[in-house]
Amino acid sequence: MPDWTVEPFTKENSLAAARLRESYYGKGDDTADQAYLEYEYWSNPLGRAVSVVAWNAEKKEAAGTYALIPTPVKAGSQTQRCLLSVNVLTGETYRGQGVYPAMSRAAFQKAAEDGYPLVFGMPNQNSYPIQMKKGYFEDLGPIPLYLRPLRPSGMVRSYLKSGTLSAMARPLDGLYRPASSAGTLFVRLTNENLKLADRFWEQVKDKYPIMVSRTGQRLAWRFLNIPRRKYQCWYALSADGAPVALAIGRKMEVAGIQCAMLADLLFAKGHESQAKALVRKVLDVLREEGADMAGCLMLPWTAEAALLRKLGFFKCPKAMEPQPFLFCAHCFQEEIRETGTMDLKNWFFTMGDYDVV
Fold first, then answer.
1. Model's pTM, two decimal places?
2. Which of 143, 154, 182, 214 has the fewest Cβ atoms within 10 angstroms?
């Protein structure tokens, strides 16, 4: 018999769960922070996460963590409470004991009992083989990572650790600085103007068949009030003052390079020019904060991916990706499958719809 059992994530084991994640990812990782985990699992306006811990009661330690976070998904003409799969981890000394399968069974059973129609996510390289073997998820396909240099000298300094080569690359910096976005009106999203987000969402919610909701309530929880993270959340406005494009970015370190990660990019049809100016503005703000490279996950057939390519983004070669970004899903109810959720070409999905960035 194993010396652990699968238990709900509680105040009594949340610190142990955070310490397990710290032992694997380091203290700087957001999910290694107890307050961050409790916010992510318990403060969601859609309800508490289906979150579990493989718990060793004798040692008072976590053997594994897993969570399914309530997420509003517009599928067809309706928005439904679905689940995002996150934070899978098994402790080093507990591997090979069936920890992850046990946590998944418990979480999926609870999700089905609670009436959730769909769970989706991007598994890490350790959990993906198990998910496919056990049939927990269907692999719908990869989501490309798009990259763009912002400051070549900084990239060289960070990646090659060479001040001399960095100085040689400095003349290229001006070529990659985002062009001016003058002439377009911008508004930063705050807790005081969330109706702006609701207004924009009403415009764009039918642009793609399957989309995670971007209401003010959702964006406030996901980006504005989240512990430890600082996001640049901006809208571009049309001449009559209507919000027509959304871009959200965050500076963070990836593979030793300071990156401007675009967590979200979406624009209303017919407003590509405002969206282009908005991306330039957000990238320039993050560049001023110290970012040397920009990155964004985007499905290649979307209008937003086409815009990124026009702005100098290129698709990251597979060999250079920090990890494969494989989009997976599982239907608990046949009705939601009939809306096209199991075909990736129906989705619009960005880093902001996930939780890593």
1. 0.94
2. 182
